[in-house]
Amino acid sequence: MLTATDGRGHVVKRPSKPTTATMLASLCRGNDHMILDWQDEDREGDWYIQVLLRDNNTYQLEYRSGVAAEHYQTLTVSQEKVLRALLGWAAGNPEWRDGFMWNNISAMFEPSVTEATSRPAV
Q1: Across 16-119, where does the E strand assignment appear?
Q2: In angstroms, rounded to a whole number, what is the distance separating the alpha carbons of residues 90 and 16?
Q3: Tens digit of pLDDT for each residue in 44-73?
Q4: What are phi and psi of 112, to 5 degrees?
C-alpha cells in the first residue's frame, strides 16, 4: 500500500494525485519534508521517495529501491519536476527519474569501519 507522510507526521493512505500535490505545495522552507512509501509484504527492503524543502528554496529529492546500495539523491528548484517525479514513482512509471542528475548516496548509509569491526561475528 502506498502511504504519504508529511513532516508533521500526518499520514495519508493511498494518496490521490491532488493530495500528493497539496502535500508538496504545503511544504515550508526550513527542512520540511514529505515521504511516499510502499508498504508491501511481498517486497523486501525499503521502497520510498522523499522530498525535503531546504532553506534556500531548493528541493532535495531522494529515493531508495529496497536496499541502502540503491539510495539516490538530486536537487532541483522546480516544484513541478518534483511533483512529476513523485506521481511517476507512485504510478510505477519508469521515466519518472528522467530530467534529473542522480547521485548514489549509499555510502552515507553504510556502517563505518569502526562499527563494522566492533560487531560480534554471527
Answers
A1: 32-38, 46-53, 59-66, 71-76, 103-104
A2: 10
A3: 788 999 999 999 999 999 999 888 888 999
A4: -70, 165
82: its cell numbers:
518534483
Q: What is the pTM of this model?
A: 0.83
How is residue 92 written as a grid cell?
510505477
Percent of the chain with pLDDT over 70: 89
Query: Which residues, including other chains, have CB under 8 Å from residue 83's CB and lie 6 or more apart?
Result: 20, 21, 24
Q: Which helix (H) or strand (E) holds 116?
A: helix 113-118
Residues 6+ away with beta carbon under 8 Å from 97: 63, 85
